[in-house]
Design goal:
Largest sheet: 3 strands, antiparallel
Helix content: 40-55%
Order of helices and strands: HHHEEHHHHHEHHHEEH
Mean pLDDT: 84
Number of strands: 5
Strand content: 5-15%
Shape: globular
Radius of gyration: 20 Å
Length: 205
């Protein structure tokens, strides 16, 4: 129906912005895409605090972890970072999931519990558990990791039809299970990559 208006949201990493601009503004003139842009930044400390402490239970918003929220935020404070605080959505999501599992329905944790938390260890546990659930042969998983992580520990973006992936039957056997487990993502143009740089870090370590 031509009378119905539609809105489309594009979400992409900054390294793909130049290619996006080429196709949308040089090859095709779509000025609206230059006027309506937002940059997605890591959470501020206040935003992270709200996410940690505000939960919805039985349809009502309740406050949890108020007494130890500052201890949780300390996990994301980086003395080497000029801003002093760096909290990515992916990492906060994984950490909070672990905290809620550990705390149980009572949402009770101590400062000692928080002090023992290792961020890299949490991401590694998340990755290892998801992979274990899929029962992918270790030989094939090693091959997938070697293909999707480069020699510097960075994510590779690889065509799903590449020779190396085809050699282990990746598209038919492993693409969908890994995507469903939020380990990888596959773009509409047929390229696959790990879901986040943090996953690449634990694979490379």
């Amino acid at each position: 129906d031509a009378s119905i208006g539609y809105k489309i949201l594009f979400s992409l990493r900054s390294e793909y912005l130049a290619t996006f601009d080429y196709w949308t503004n040089e090859r095709n003139s779509i000025p609206e895409l230059l006027k309506n842009r937002m940059i997605l930044l890591p959470f501020t400390e206040e935003q992270a605090k709200e996410i940690i402490t505000e939960q919805v239970m039985d349809g009502e918003r309740v406050s949890v972890f108020d007494d130890i929220c500052d201890d949780i935020l300390t996990l994301f404070r980086n003395k080497d970072n000029a801003s002093g605080f760096m909290c990515e959505a992916f990492l906060l999501s994984v950490v909070c999931s672990r905290l809620y599992e550990q705390a149980g329905n009572a949402f009770r944790l101590s400062r000692a519990d928080i002090a023992e938390i290792d961020l890299k260890g949490i991401v590694m546990a998340f990755y290892d558990e998801r992979i274990a659930e899929l029962s992918i042969p270790r030989k094939h998983m090693n091959a997938i990791e070697d293909i999707l992580v480069d020699e510097f520990g960075k994510r590779n973006r690889v065509n799903v039809e590449s020779f190396k992936l085809n050699a282990i039957g990746f598209k038919d056997k492993y693409l969908q299970p890994l995507e469903n487990s939020h380990i990888i993502r596959c773009s509409s143009d047929g390229y696959v990559e790990l879901i986040h740089d943090r996953i690449a870090e634990v694979v490379f370590s």
